[in-house]
Amino acid sequence: MKIEILGTGCARCHKLEEQTSAAVKDLGIEAEVIKVQDYKKIMGYGVMTLPALVVDGEVKVAGKIPAKEEIKKLLGGN
Hints:
By secondary structure, the protein is α+β, with helices and mostly antiparallel strands. It has one domain: 3-Layer(aba) Sandwich (Glutaredoxin), CATH 3.40.30.10. Helix content is 38%, strand content 24%. The protein has helices spanning 11-27, 39-44, 68-74, and strands at 2-6, 32-36, 52-55, 58-62. A 4-stranded mixed beta sheet has the order 2-1-3-4. A hairpin with a 2-residue loop joins strand 3 and strand 4 (58-62). Helix 1 crosses helix 3 (68-74).
């Protein structure tokens, strides 16, 4: 699974990365978590508000930081 955190490196972006990494660990899944800060790549997803969570090329959340439990559900956990 490829997980991308889209953002400029702000505190909210770091928080989303932390929450996502914790969710991946809790679920025990194999996933690559990547920070994407390049504006051209971010715009390629059509995202207008940051941070954003992208899973296997699909934007799951944009403009907010979901709770760890919500992220787990987005990653296919219960």
